[in-house]
Specification:
The complex is a heterodimer. By secondary structure, chain A is mainly beta. Chain A is built from no helices and 11 strands. Helix content of chain A is about 0%, strand content about 60%. Classes of the chains: A mainly beta, B mainly beta.
Chain lengths: ~110, ~110
């Protein structure tokens, strides 16, 4: 059975801290891994990763994929209160087919 | 503005009364899909469509129907809603031709079945 597991499920940090969110997967016909940020309602797209070892960066956020060990990490440096959200990891099986989500990591950043 | 539009945003209905949640995208995306989000269970895929007239089941299709008669629209139909279908529903779309595509989500529909 396909599964995507995120850890930790929740995390509380202080502003300025660096956090690492984890996502491991066991999915047949893997095509890509995606990260989303969900604040009040709709998830917003952060990264899509298809190749091992290539870091993707956007401001203070970065992510990398390890296809041999079947996991990805999302790093957030110098956290701000606006980073408080649920971070979702999803694995796409084939282009335009199943998208399997983990349960998410709830990040709370206190000032 | 490129977007996925869902309607209604909130809906309270009674058991057994057929309802439709609409989803429309203006990005000419081939791929559209529906998810439900429940506490402790995360987002689970209901149905997806790779193009017009092509639909397939996701992880939790029971009790739902979809259709894809036009590229821009992908309605979710609950023929006989039950309380266990109370959930937050999201529609999403994506272009299969863009090598770095992500999925764009609608704002969600909060459905309560009593």
């Amino acid at each position: 059975e396909d599964k995507v597991v995120q850890s930790p499920l929740s995390l509380v940090v202080h502003e300025g801290d660096t956090v690492t969110l984890n996502c491991s997967y066991e999915v047949t016909n893997f095509r890509s891994l995606l990260w989303y940020k969900q604040e009040k309602k709709a998830p917003t797209f952060l990264f899509m990763l298809t190749s091992s070892g290539i870091e993707k960066k956007s401001g203070r956020l970065s992510s990398i994929l390890d296809k041999k060990e079947l996991f990805s990490i999302l790093n957030i440096t110098a956290t701000q209160t606006g980073d408080s959200a649920i971070y979702l990891c999803a694995v796409e099986k084939q282009a335009g087919t199943a998208l399997i989500f983990g349960k998410g990591t709830t990040l709370s950043v206190s000032s | 503005e490129a977007q996925v539009t869902q309607n209604p945003r909130y809906l309270i209905t009674v058991t057994g009364k057929k309802l439709t949640v609409t989803c429309s995208q203006n990005m000419n995306h081939e791929y559209m899909s529906w998810y439900r989000q429940d506490p402790g269970l995360g987002l689970r895929q209901i149905y997806y469509s790779m193009n017009v007239e092509v639909t397939d089941k996701g992880d939790v299709p029971e009790g739902y129907k979809v259709s894809r008669k036009e590229k821009r629209n992908f309605p979710l139909i609950l023929e006989s809603p039950s309380p266990n279908q109370t959930s937050l529903y999201f529609c999403a779309s994506s272009s299969l031709r863009d090598p770095n595509y992500g999925y764009t989500f609608g704002s969600g529909t909060r459905l309560t079945v009593v």
